[in-house]
């Protein structure tokens, strides 16, 4: 009986020692600081107001163009009594990018040679030349209707397109016909704004309803189409 009591006491002492050792080995949590610094917010600087310069017109009548040069399309004309507001310039300070008084929200370019700035222009932002596009295409076919005897095929039709660009560019195009025929790509150089003509012809071998498409591939994609009927009598 004494052995059992001694053994029970020994086990109790060992368990108590282990519990005390474990409790002593646990780290004491450090208190969380409630005085952490609040991050500062960096103020955003205000957007600078674009520089604008008032221009006096020194010629009787001046041109305002699509781009900075006489090779660009004429957009508007301003008389000598008109004042203009320049918001930009080209790199050479030879052309001013101005608000167009005749078109709210519109802009165009005037030559520095025909204007007098009322304040320094050195702070005007540089504006890059505009992207030149094809602005108008007049497509016609001749004849626009064919009526012949059925033994008079083939017949020839001629296509003509007057293509207008608003500045110097490289035009790329091709023709397509409803019969499945298509031409090779053609190119044409515009050294200045203006209109140039493209001609083509095609042979018709049977009556039917036909169409011809002119595909402008560059500088900006466009598709123009004309239709023409072909009939025959026995």
State the main characteristics.
SH3 type barrels; five-stranded mixed β-sheet; single chain; 1 helix; mainly beta; Immunoglobulin-like; 10% helix; 234 residues
Short description:
The protein is 10% helix and 47% strand.
Characterization of the model:
The protein is mainly β. It has 2 domains: 53-126, SH3 Domains (SH3 type barrels), CATH 2.30.30.40; 134-233, Immunoglobulins (Immunoglobulin-like, Sandwich), CATH 2.60.40.10. The protein is 10% helix and 47% strand. Strands 1, 4, 5, 6, 7 and 8 form a 6-stranded mixed beta sheet that branches. Strands 10-16-15-12-13 form a 5-stranded mixed beta sheet, with no helix packed on it. The radius of gyration is 41 Å and the shape is elongated. It starts with a helix and ends with a strand. Mean pLDDT is 86; it is low at 1-26 and 28-33.
């Amino acid at each position: 009986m004494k052995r059992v009591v001694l053994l029970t006491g020994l086990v109790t002492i060992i368990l108590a020692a282990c519990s005390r050792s474990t409790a002593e080995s646990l780290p004491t949590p450090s208190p969380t600081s409630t005085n952490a610094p609040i991050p500062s917010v960096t103020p955003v600087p205000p957007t600078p107001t674009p520089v604008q310069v008032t221009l006096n017109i020194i010629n009787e009548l001046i041109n305002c163009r699509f781009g900075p040069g006489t090779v660009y399309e004429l957009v508007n004309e301003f008389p000598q009594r008109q004042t203009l507001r320049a918001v930009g310039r080209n790199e050479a300070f030879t052309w001013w990018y101005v608000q167009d008084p005749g078109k709210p929200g519109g802009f165009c370019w005037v030559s520095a040679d025909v204007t007098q700035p009322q304040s320094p222009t050195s702070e005007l932002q540089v504006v890059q030349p505009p992207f030149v596009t094809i602005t108008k295409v007049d497509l016609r076919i001749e004849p626009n209707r064919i009526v012949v005897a059925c033994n008079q095929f083939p017949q020839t039709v001629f296509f003509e397109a007057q293509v207008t660009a608003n500045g110097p560019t490289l035009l790329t195009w091709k023709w397509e016909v409803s019969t499945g025929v298509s031409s090779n790509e053609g190119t044409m150089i515009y050294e200045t704004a203006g209109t140039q003509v493209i001609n083509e012809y095609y042979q018709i071998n049977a009556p039917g309803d036909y169409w011809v498409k002119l595909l402008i591939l560059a500088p900006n994609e466009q598709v123009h189409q004309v239709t023409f009927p072909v009939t025959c009598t026995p």
